[in-house]
Amino acid sequence: MAHSVFQNLAGKNIFVTGHTGFKGSWLCQWLSKLGANVTGYALAPPTDPNNFTISNVRELLVDHHEADIRDQAKLHKAIRDASPDVVFHLAAQSVVRKSYETPLQTFDVNVMGTASVLEALRDLNHPCAAVIVTSDKCYENREQTWGYRECDAFGDQDPYGGSKGAAEIVVRSYRHSFFPPERLAEHGVKIASARAGNVIGGGDFTKDALIVDIVNALRSNKPVELRCPGAFRPWQHVLQALSGYLTLASRLLTTDDPALCSGWNIGPSPGNEIPVRDMVDLFLREWGSGSWVDVANQTNPHEANILRLAIDKALWQLKWKPCWSVEESVRQTAKWYRCYLNTPQEISELNSEQIIDYQSTFERMIVGAGTPVTTSTPTLPIPETKTSNPISIV
Questions:
Q1: 325-347, pLDDT tens digit by residue?
Q2: Half-sphere exposure of residue 331, counting CA atoms within 13 Å on the CB side?
Q3: CATH 3.40.630.30 fits 8-201+234-269+305-325, yes or no
């Protein structure tokens, strides 16, 4: 399945941290389809059930390390043994509400864990490309209606957002101190970061994630409880976020343009930033049943009420484009959970079908792309003031 856009990843040695997680397990499946030699490094799957086990991802890997990214001895050895051409760093504490419960662990994993990966690359001492995945919540959230750009300030009010902003600073510091883009000919290490919008898709079983709450409520014949139906987020399918990471890695491998060694927003097209209530309505309509109730509580931990990404840079400079609308993303997500609940033995086949479908659409859009659609003009309505404590969105 090696098409033109990603064909240079075929046969490459690729090291993925966080491969037992939701996005990491999907990334490994896609890389395997592309013909890459994938090594995974992560803790045991974070939930039970989980996509890594359900989709038999272990069988697709050249090697599998179950260890902590903060264990520098194990991490350095694993990376040296893998001799990677590309590193995707996804291992993280990824839940906003959990960051309030375990703030020290969140900062340790997300900040020092990122530093540990970068230090391993410094110890590796051979050329490679690295895509460090952080979050759209890395930005200082000002509740603005226009999208955050890559040049905006880092840092947020909750420990999760703060840790992701700090991770971006670590990436920038290592890049300029040890892997300066203007001296690629000397060290050959290309480091970029990717900040994706809110990801949905089959195989997510993370506590407090919106789709998980919806599916659990449907299975229990109960209404979905929404802590804030009016919270806006930049929704996109997991494969859309991964297509951005893969595009970035592919470009890093094929060019020495120092401009690629920077931060990149990977988000949906304008108009796909909708409130939680609309996202839930879309899913319930696709499912054919269900309802939701507003259980807003002013004592809930603070989370941003409105979040939007500007993706102009990726559109114009990376030549990446989002393919699936929020409606299509919901349709594909609902299809996955129906399959999991009714015919789980067919999940691997469905995963393959969805990857092929997304990549085929992506290929057609890139090949036939004209002028990208700008995201400069906000299309987002101002949220209602009564919805100040949003539902937890991962």
A1: 999 999 999 999 999 999 999 99
A2: 7
A3: no
